[in-house]
Design brief:
Jelly Rolls, homodimer, four-stranded antiparallel sheet, about 190 residues
């Protein structure tokens, strides 16, 4: 049995024995290989992912080029709400940058759980608030920070990402060309 | 009594008489004048706003210049979750572009409501999902769309905004200089 999702919940709230049991029983754990897709642009999905281990890159293809929107690693949620509501197809891809293990949830299953255990809905709402908050900060940073600042933020808050994904993906995430990222890194190396 | 928030809820879910009563009683309606600030960068706030009428601009100041992050109008929620969780100060401003009337909610009051009426938590979660979805789409658009596409999307999905706010704010929202926006508009006018 994999306790990591339960341990994650326990950081947010206490769980009764029944709640722990039903959460554990309802957990669907799935393993993906490096380069596997969790979701492709244009396909439909209601799934939500909690990453147990590994790294997933969210990207969009534009004129034949990848543009990285976000990276997700251990204990992060990938919530694709656009798909819940409008039943529209995904406008991005999710690809594994490493062998990756996730817990897969979906809205329908969650609703059934919430009916039995309303307290889990509160926890779910709190998780969504946190994910939403991260998203808001990411967007504000994307709109207002210069590429160099975005690189420094990544270095400060998620240094592991820089070791785990190719420079090319870091560059498109920051919104610049790989050559420009090299220049930024050289400049920063000189400073230190 | 102002029914507009109740009517909004009724689009999402049915409400019992008790739920309608408690929602109506707990509603705090506040009127702001054009140019009033709902929130300033650096200040703390736990408030959430539902706009009854008017228009609010979310922006950040960078090197003395405004950068517009979003516009909010009738029936939209402004949810500043970053403040719920970390008790950090706001990293943006909210200013009224017109005389604006809002319903103000906050997390603590919401929690009390949810204890009495758990079904309202489900509705609240659904609303947050919708707001989150809009935010995700906005971010994806910001990262992947060219300025002209962003302008066309605004024209298509929120044509009223173009009438309600100055061109300067439209330009910083799209991520370009006002001169570039003029060029885009001229080019589109020629096409039509």
């Amino acid at each position: 049995m994999d306790n990591r999702l339960i341990n994650y919940f326990l950081k947010i709230t206490n769980l009764t024995e029944d709640e722990t049991k039903v959460l554990t029983e309802s957990m669907v754990v799935k393993k993906f290989k490096k380069n596997d897709f969790l979701l492709k642009e244009g396909l439909f999905s209601n799934d939500t992912y909690f990453i147990l281990d590994g790294c997933v890159r969210q990207f969009k293809t534009l004129n034949g080029n990848d543009i990285t929107i976000n990276f997700y690693t251990e204990e992060q949620w990938i919530i694709s709400l656009e798909n819940f509501e409008e039943k529209s197809s995904s406008n991005y891809n999710l690809v594994c940058m490493e062998d990756t293990t996730v817990v897969i949830g979906n809205e329908q299953k969650a609703q059934e759980l919430f009916k039995q255990f309303p307290r889990l809905e509160t926890t779910s709402r709190q998780i969504m608030e946190t994910v939403f908050m991260e998203q808001q900060n990411l967007m504000t940073s994307y709109i207002t920070d210069k590429p160099e600042q975005r690189y420094l933020k990544l270095l400060e808050t998620r240094p592991d990402i820089l070791q785990r994904v190719p420079q090319y993906d870091i560059a498109t995430y920051i919104g610049i060309k790989p050559e420009s990222l090299s220049r930024i890194r050289k400049k920063l190396n000189k400073k230190n």
